[in-house]
Amino acid sequence: MVNKVRKMITILSAAAVVSTIAACANNTQTSDPTATASAMAPTESQSPEEVKVDPFGKYDPPIEITFVGSISDQFEKTTLTDGVTLEDNVWTKAFLEELGIKVKYKWIAKSPEEYKQKLNLSLASGDIPDVMTLDTAELQSAIKADIIQDVGGIIEQYGIDEVKQNYTTYNFDPYIAAKNDGKIYAVPQMWSVSDNASGILWIRQDWLEKVGMTPPKTMDDVYAISKAFTHNDPDGNNKNDTFGLAISKDYIQDLGGLFYGYNAYPGSWMEKDGQLVNGSILPETKGVLENLAAMYKDGQIDPEFYVKPADKIAQDIASQKHGMMYGFMWNGIYPLQDSRRDNPGADWRPYLIPAADGSVAKPKADSGIAGYYVVNKNFKHPEALVKMMNLLKTLGPKDPNKYSNSADGKELWKLSPVSVPTLEENLHYHKRMNELVKSGETPANAVEQSVFDKVKQWTDKKDETVWGFYRMLGNGGVGEIAQAAIEYYFDNDLWVYNAYRGAPTQTMSDKGSTLSTLESEAFVKIITGQKDIGEFDKFVTEWKKLGGDDITREVNDWYANAK
Amino acid sequence: MNVIKKSKNLSLHLMLLPAMILLIVFSYIPMAGIVIAFQDFIPAKGFLGNQEWVGLKNFELISTNPFVYRVLQNTLIIAFAKILLGLAIPIAFAIFLNEIRSSAYKRTLQTLVYLPHFLSWVLLGGILIDILSPSTGIVNNLLKSLGFNPIFFLGDPKWFQPTVIITDVWKEFGWSTILYLAAITAINPSLYESAKIDGAGRFRQMISVTLPGMSMIIAMLAILSIGNILNAGFDQIFNLYHAGVYETGDIIDTFVYRMGLIDAKFGPAAAVGLFKSIVSLILITVSYYCAYRFADYRIF
After folding, report:
1. Which of A120, A304, A308 sits opposite B134 (nearest CB)?
2. Residue B50: closest CA among chain A residues belongs to which residue?
3. Which superkingdom is the protein from (chain B) (predicted)?
């Protein structure tokens, strides 16, 4: 839990640098509201007079929309100053002036925990706002409780192109979890799929050189490097104190990339011959566990790994015990940046994940959905939500300093109760950095300028504090910049998605914890050699018997319906 | 006379009022939530909403879980050992501390042993992983220098229970010591004087004056702690355990926590809470009765 939160904080701080909604500045497609409106067929429109829609149509007299909000201390200190409040700021003024929408809050929580509590209370008491954000399980229970309305097609009907394209960027149906009885009960809040995907193999270049090896092309290369990093004293201190591969007690999460190299996706639902199967029980996963057991036996993995949470492993990385890890595109910022504090020679480089057959692995992408906007059953103007999105996407890029992120660090985009992120923003900036360096032109806007300045701070001045940032999205190719690897996965359409996108099924919520207990116990015993690999088959039999078969059936029923 | 007494009592009762209100609002009214243990509770429908009643399904879900006996056993062993040592060690320590003449030394010692009480398990968890590490930890370095094999205290299922019990007692015994020291200072000094006159030595005084003088507070704390027989310490175990020691380290609370992670399962969580409360109530009642019968201890 703590590690997850820590990771999220890291991602968010990384994203904050890059700003979140200002980034569509380079989306040069101009939006002609009337053209957009006439170009699309009005689907599922409820009243005939709505056939001709105006994405920016102003309500007269103004309408009121209630939301619920959450603010942090940081946000309060930087942005809610000089009389600015969530209900009275540049965005609420814009919504009122341009769209005739008055933004009100039912309540504002001061922490994520408080938000969760108040949301549960709101749901429990039935006193819900007009629009709010829910997770998949909350969405399901809100649909069951019949408190939200059908919002199918409103993005397509009212959205401008910049908003609509968020829902077609990836090749999966973003609405799949919001469907029930042929209706669509939510507008998904989209999110980049690569930010939290384990798609990078980080390796210390200085250690590679020390042991006389080159970056890996195949899985055998990875094992050879791991062996050399363990036994050939890569840090040159004449002590046997280094390990081949860094993993913590959350090894499944840490090792994502290693599993993907064998087309193994433990914990995810994958389609095989038209049926969904759980990756945990497949032979591919068994093979990886066998390899890990061999590495553990050879001392290539910290013998105490299964006791150590991720932050402990981060400390070990900082104290130069590890030279290779599977991870995320932002790992340069944390924890790898820490390993340069004591040793600026720790030259971590991001590589593509090799696959067992010598090609590039297919990494598993994040869900791509941050939450679901739902609209109160009794609210008369669901399309107002989309109109607000339209305005966000128009005003934000036009004047980022006023609406997105001010020069003095105000997070203005958070003043709006709705947000429309720019998907794969980090990748966008990486591409722009390459273009800028190549063409020699100047950055197009303030945000781009600040990213460019930071990258330059490393390339020109070797400023250690921005090393991790540079490795994440600076200028360069695969093996230098993490986003270059992400770009490769997109260009070659390699991302794999969890095929199950519904809420937890009945058996999942009844038996899921039993199955995951069974799994983590069996896996850790196999890796550490307390049980031989035969234990895996026993685990699979138990897993199926104790509810796994039921879950598989439920998941496939859902899949048949959703397809 | 009577009027004065009444008004005196009235002000005392008024002083009791805030505590009573807190008790009613936060302990008695929430008891209504027990109904959740018998429902398939959906938060969105509301507490008073049209929830589906499922009878004992939530209890069944827990009792038919293949891990429930292992979990119950671990909880009982860990909690019982913690209660026993958590009573014995502070009592012994308080008595010995009381015998120390130098008050500066006594106070320093007292402060030092109760300091760990203020550290959170999140913090201590990280520290323990370091100092108990078989390769680099200070404890195992000591063992190695004495010629023993290193022990993986937190990784070996055999050692996990003793490790959590001892570290918990280490963290908390200084805190309980304070209560016993307070009880000792309340003992009438004239008892010691007459004991001395009767020729009792220091050790005899400890056994025959100090210990009986503490018996009331010991009985009370023992009775209260027996109610905790199903609380093996979530914070501690959660920060120290891992899949490798589930077989000896997984307790009811961590088990239910993992259950809740998959889905917000209010029903089974409430069922477990109710089960724990009933067991605690029975044990406290029985032990209170025993204390009354055999030690003539009573609160009212």
Report:
1. A304
2. A145
3. Bacteria
The angle subtended at Cα A202 by Cα A199 and Cα A208, nearest 5°, is 145
Class of domain B69-295 (CATH, top level) = mainly alpha
The answer to whether A305 and A249 are in contact (CB under 8 A) is yes
- Residues A477-486 have pLDDT tens digits of 999 999 999 9
The confidence score (pLDDT) of residue A44 equals 44
Domain range holding A230? 198-364+494-563
Is the distance from CB of A156 to CB of A164 less than 8 angstroms? Answer: yes
Q: How confident is the model at residue A407 (pLDDT cuts 50, 70, 90)?
A: confident
Residue A232 lies in a domain: yes
Judge whether A71 and A108 are in contact, CB under 8 Å: yes
How close, in Å, is residue B228 to chain A by CA atoms?
25
Nearest by CB to A517, from B46, B135, B246: name it: B246
Asked if A3 has any chain B CB less than 8 Å from its own CB, the reply is: no
A226 with A167, same domain?
A: no
A212 and A108 part of one domain? no
Average pLDDT over residues A505-520: 90
By C-alpha distance, which of B30, B40, B31 is closest to B61?
B40
Which of A399, A415, A431 delimits the end of a domain? A415
Residues of chain B neighbouring A138 (CB-CB closer than 8 A): 43-44
Q: Alpha-carbon distance A397 to A96, whole Å?
A: 19
ipTM: 0.84
Asked whether A100 and A59 are in contact (CB, 8 A), the reply is yes
Q: Hey, where are the domains in chain B?
A: 1-55, 69-295
Q: Is A243 helix (H, G, I), strand (E, B) or coil?
A: strand
